[in-house]
Amino acid sequence: MKTSGNAAHTHDPIKEIENALRERVGLDAASIGSSLIHRSIRLRMKCNGMNNAQDYIKLLFSSRTEWNEMVESILVTETWFFRDSEPFNALVRLVQEEWLPANPGGRLRLLSLPCSSGEEPYSLAMALSDAGIALERLDIDAVDISALALSRARKGLYGKNSFRGNSFGFRNKYFRATANGFELHPSILKAVRFTEGNVLDENFQPPHGLYDFIFCRNLLIYFDRPTQKKALAKLSNLLATDGLVFVGAAEQVLVLDQGFVSAHLPMAFACRKGTSDPVGPGIPESPGLSHPDSIIEASPLAPGALQATADTVQPALVPADLNTARRLADEGRLQEAATICEAHLQNGKPSAQAYYLLGLVRDATGDPAAQDYYRKALYLEPNHHDSLLQLALWSQKNGQIALARRFRSRAQRVSLSK
C-alpha cells in the first residue's frame, strides 16, 4: 500500500492511517488503541470542514501540514522539566567523574530524542550549567517528529504544567515570569539546537555523528518488537564507543535484550554498548551478572525454580534488602535480585516491590506467570507505577489491547499525581 500523493487507497481509512503511522512514524497503533485514532480523524475532519472520510484520506496523504496536524493530535506527549530526577543526577555525576577528566578541552555532545516541547533538553542544559559546565562546551541536539512541538520548544515559553514536584529553584534561576507564562533565559535557549526528524527514517542523521549521551526515554514502548530493534540499532550507531543511552524504566529490559549492558546506575536506566565478549552480546562484563537471555539458558524458572535458587545461596551472602534488589535489577542482574526478593518474602514480609521484581524476572523469560506477580504487587499497592506499566506491556504483547490501555492510563494518572 502506498501512503502519499494520489496513491490508491483501501476502503478502510482507519487501517490506512494505522499503516501509515507504522511506516512513517513507527507507531504501533495497538499501543494507543484504535479509538484514539478514530477520535483524531473525526477532530481533523471537523477542523477541515469535511464529512467524507475518503476525501480526508486524500488530503492527509497529500498535505504535509495536515499530516503533521494528525500526528500531533495522536501523539499526546506528556513531559515536564526534570521529569524523573535520577537520570539527570546520574548524567551530572558521569560528566564530572568520567567525561571531564577524559576530555579536559573537549565538547560534550548530547541528544534528546524525542524531545517533544523541549523540557528534557533544556533540563539537560540547566543541570550541566548548575554543575559548573560552561554552556559553550555543550552541543545539545533535540529531535522530534512534530513540527508543532518543536515550534513551541524554540520559543522557550512554558505554562505551569511544565513545572511539577516540590523543587522550583531552577525556575527561579532560569525563567522569567510573564503574563503569557514562564520565559526561559536566553543562555539556556541558545544551548539547545532543535531538529525535525524521525529515528526510523533511512537517512536519519542528527547534526552530530556521535553522541556522548543519548536520552531516549519512553519511546520504545510505543513500537512493536521489529521497530524497537530498528530504533535501537540507530541509537547504537549514534552513540560514542564509551557513551550511554538513558531509557525509560519499562524499557531497560528491551535495551539489554538488544546487545546493550547496564551502566550500573540505580534508577537511572542507563545502558552502554555491549562488548565483543564471546559469551554473547549484551551480557554484562562483571562476573556473576545475569542478562535476561542468560536466565533462559541457566534455568526455565518453572514453578519452584526461584525457591531452589534461594536455597542454594548462603543466607549470609543474600541480604534481604529490597533496595539492594532494585539496584541489582536496574543493573540487569535479575537473578540476584530475584533471590533477594524470594528471601524477603520467605521471611513473611509481603511487599509490592518484591513481587514486582520477581515479575521482571519471569517477564524476561517469557513466562506468563509474570502477570501474576505484577498483580500481587498491585493487590498490595494499587498505585505501584512500574507494575502498572509492565502489565500494560504484557497485555499489549499478548493481544489484550483494551486491558493494556487501561493499565497505561492508570500508570499515567499515578505519574501525574506524584
Describe the structure.
The chain is an alpha/beta fold and 418 residues long. The chain is built from 19 helices and 10 strands. The two termini are 44 Å apart. Helix 2 crosses helix 4 and helix 17 runs antiparallel to helix 18 (385-397). It has helices at residues 13-25, 34-47, 53-62, 64-74, 85-102, 119-130, 147-155, 169-174, 186-189, 225-238, 252-256, 292-298, 305-311, 322-330, 334-346, 352-364, 370-380, 385-397, 401-417, and strands spanning 108-112, 138-144, 157-158, 175-178, 181-184, 192-196, 211-215, 239-246, 260-262, 270-273.
Structural class: alpha/beta
Taking the alpha carbons of the first and last residues, their distance comes to 44 Å
Uncertain parts: 1-10, 276-320
Strand content: 5-15%
Shape: globular
Spell out the key features of this protein.
418 residues; alpha/beta; 7-stranded mixed beta sheet; 3-stranded antiparallel beta sheet; 49% helix; disordered N terminus
How do the strands and helices of this protein lay out in sequence?
Elements: H1 13-25, H2 34-47, H3 53-62, H4 64-74, H5 85-102, E1 108-112, H6 119-130, E2 138-144, H7 147-155, E3 157-158, H8 169-174, E4 175-178, E5 181-184, H9 186-189, E6 192-196, E7 211-215, H10 225-238, E8 239-246, H11 252-256, E9 260-262, E10 270-273, H12 292-298, H13 305-311, H14 322-330, H15 334-346, H16 352-364, H17 370-380, H18 385-397, H19 401-417
Parallel strand pairs: 1-2, 1-7, 2-6, 7-8
Antiparallel strand pairs: 3-5, 4-5, 8-10, 9-10
